[in-house]
Amino acid sequence: MHFSLSSVSLKTLLTSFIVLCFSFNDIQAQDSDNTIDSIIVNAPKAIPLTAIIQNIQKTNDDLKLIERKLEANKAVHKVDSLYPTYATYIDKQQEQTEKVLASNPNRQKIENLYTKWNGNRIYLTGIEDDVNNFVSRNTRLLETIELHHKTWDLTLENAKNEEAPKEILNRISDLIKDIEAIDKAIIEENNTALKLESKINFKVELINEIMEEILTLKNSETYDLFHLRHSPIWKISFSQTESSSNSSALEAASDSFKELVSFIKNNKSSFYLYFTLILFLSGIIYFLKRGFEKYEFVANDPNLHISKDVILKHPIASYIFLSLLIGNIFFTGTPKLFESILILGLIIVSSYVVRPQIKTQFKNIYYVITFFYIIDLLKTYLWFHSGVYRVYLLFEAILIGAAVYLLLKKLYATKDAKINPLSKFLIQLSPSIYILVFVAIMSNFLGYTNLTDITLKICTHIGVITVIFYSLLLILEGISTSVIHRHFSSKAEIDFNRKLALELKLMKILRVVVLIFWFLFFLNMIEVYRPLKDYLTDILSEPYKLGTISITIGSILSFIIILISSYLLTTLISFMIDDGDGEGVLKSLRLPKGIPAAVSLVIRYFIVAFGFVFALSSLGMDLSKFNLLAGAMGIGIGFGLQTLISNFVSGLILVFERPVLQGDTIEVDNLLGRVHKIGVRSSKIRTFDGAEVIVPNYNLMSNNLINWTLSDNIKRIDIFIGATYDADPNQVLEILAKTGASHPNTLKTPPPRGLFLEFGDNSLNFVLQCWVHYELSLTTKSEISVAVYNAFKEAGIEIPFPQRDIHIKSMPNNNTIENKTS
After folding, report:
1. Under a CB-based contact definition with an 8 Å cutoff, are residues 550 and 544 in contact?
2. Average pLDDT, stretch 641-654?
3. Which residues face 671 on adjacent strands?
4. Structural domain of residue 567, as residue ranges?
5. CA angle 669, 599, 591 (to 5 degrees)
6. How many whole angstroms separate alpha carbon 90 and alpha carbon 211?
7. I need a surface site. Which of 259, 544, 712, 742 has the fewest CB within 10 A?
8. What's the pTM value of the predicted model, to 2 decimals?
9. 306: how many CB neighbours lie within 10 A of its CB?
10. What local confidence, expressed as pLDDT, does residue 34 receive?
11. Same domain, yes or no: 460 and 571
12. In this structure, is residue 268 part of a structural domain?
C-alpha cells in the first residue's frame, strides 16, 4: 500500500495523520476497581431420560458444525507448512541487508530498505493476527465442548442410577467418545497454532530490530545533509570494473521482479477482493456520468464546468485513476516495483484528466515529469559504482535544468490571464527548481552527495505529486458536483441558489483537504514527516492530571474530532436521505411519505449517541461513573426538564406515527402554514405571508390540528352566488357546472357541481363545489368566480344586491310625507 514518491506508503501517511489525533490514548485514566471481567458459563445439568434421544441429535449437530469450522481453517496448516520457506527468505533478506548497509548506500536506498522491511512486518503481523484469531475461536469452541462433556457425563451417571436401557447407555457413551475426540483435535490445533504464532512473533521481533538498525543508521551523522560523504568529483576513482557493476544491476533488478511475483502469489485473495471493489467503482462512475447526461447542467462558474467535464468526458480515465489509487491504499507490504508501476500508471492516466485544462504550449510537461521520475527511479533498482553514481547525478541535474528552461521559455513571455492554476504553479516553481539544480551540481562536485540526493529527489518528485494530487482534486470535484447535481435535479422543484452554494462550498473543502495531504507528502519527500510526526506524538501523548483523571492533548483532540465527525456525518445523511422528504437516495424504493425522514432520524440519533460515547471513551473516562449523573438527570427530568422531554418524545411520535409530515399544510391554534422542518424539540411552520413560526412539538400533539394534506392535497372550494327570482334555476345550475368543469385546475373526479341552496330574501341562492389541489385553491376560486360572473352577464342573469325601503313619516315644515327609495 505504498505511494512510493518517498518510499513511505500512502496508507502509512493517512494512518499516521489520523493517529496524531486518535492514537494518543495509551495513557488514560486508571480503570475502576469495581470493573470485573467475568465469563458466565451455564452450569451443566443432567438431561432427563425422556429428552436424551432428542438432545443426542442436537449435540451431534453441534459436533458436526464444530468439525466443519475446523475443516474451514486449514489455512493455518498451510501457513505452518510454508513458514520455513518464508523464514529462509527473511534470513536471506537479512544477509542482503547487511551487505547493503556495509556498502555505504545512499539515502534513497536506506529509505527503500526500511520500506521493504516494513512490508515484511505488515505481512507477518497480518498472519500473526489470523493465527491469534484462530486460537481465540478454538478457545470458544473448547468452552462449548467442555460444557457438552460435563453435561453428558452427568447424564450418563443419572441414566445409570435410573437403570436406563443398555442401548441408551451405549449411545451416551459413544457420544462422550466423539466429544473427547473433537476436544483432543481442537487442543492439537491450538498447540500447532500457538507454536506457529510464537515462530512468527520471533521473526516480527527480528524485523523490528532490523528496521530500528536501519532507522538509526539513517539518522546518523553519515547521512546528514551537510556531511562530506565523498571526495570532490575530480578525485573520484573508476577502479571497479564495468562488468561487476552490470552484474550487480542485473541482480538487483532480478530480485525486484522476484519480490513482485512472490507478492502476487501470496495475496491472491486480496487481488480478488480488490477487483470486486473496482468493479463496484465502475458502477459508481457510470451512475455519476448518467446524472450529467440525464439532467441538464446549468452553472456560470467555469470551475463547475471543468469538474463536470472530468466525469462526463473522461469517465474511463477517472475510473482507472481511482482504481490505481485504491490499489495503493488497499494492498499492504507491496514491493517497490509494484508501487512504482502504480505510480507510473497514475502519472499516465492523470494526463487525460489534467491535460485538457492546460495550455497547448505546456502539454509536454507530462513527458518531462514521467521521464525524470523514471530517471530518478533507476537509482532504486540499479547499483552504481561510486564514481559512476556521481556522474549519473551530475547528468541528471543538468538534464533537469535544461528541460525546465526549454519547457517554460515560451511561457515566461506569456501574459495570458487564463493560464491554468497548475501551469501558474509550475511557472512560479521554476526559479526554485533552478536553485535546487544549482545546489545539486555544486554539492555533487564538492562531495556532499546526501544534499545532492535530496535536492534531485525534490526536483523530480515535486511535479509528480503535484500532478497526481491535482488530478485527484479534479476527479473528487467532479464526483461531488455530480452527486449534488443529480440530487437536486431529480426533484420537482430545484433551488438553484442552494445547489450552487453547496457545490462551491464542497469544492473549497475538497481543495483544502487535498492541499493538506499534498503538504504531508511534500514533508515526507524532504524526509521531515517522520521526525515531525514523532515530535508531535510525544507532545500529544504527554499525560496531564486533572484530579483523578489522566488525559492527554491527543485525547482531547480525539474527543473534538469524533464529535465534529459525528455532526458532519449526520448532516450528510440528512442531506442524502430525507432532504426534501422522499427526494433523497431512498426515492427509488418508493417508500411511503415520511419514512425516509424517520429512517434518517433514527440513523442520525444512533450516530450522535455512539459518537458521544466514543468521544468520552477517547478521553479515557470510565462510563460507569456516569451512573450518578444519570440519576441526577432523572431527577432533573422529573422537575425542571418536563417540557423539554415532552417535546422530544412528541417529536419522535411525529416522526414515526406521521400525523404531520414535512411539506404538509396544517392549521393549529389559528396558525395556517406549511411544515418546513420537524426537529428534535420543535417544528418550523412557514405561514403563507412569509413568517416562520417555531411551534413546540408537544403543541402539535396535544392541540386540535387540521392537516390539509395528510393523505392527499385535494381540497373542495365552495363558491356562493345568488340570482334574481326572474332567473331560471335550471339554466343557472347548468352554467355553474359548465364553468367549473371548463377550468383546467378542477378535478374531473369528482366533477364540479352546482347546487340550489335556498330561496333567499332577495335572491335564489346557489353554490358551485369544485375539487382542486390545495396549492391552487385560492387562485382557482378567484378565476372561477370571475368566470361565473362573466357567464351570468352573457346569459342576462342578474346578480341581485340587497334592497331596503325607507319611510320618512315627518319632516320640518311638512305634514306626513312618505317617500319610497330603493
Report:
1. yes
2. 77
3. 668
4. 551-621
5. 90
6. 13
7. 712
8. 0.70
9. 16
10. 37
11. no
12. yes
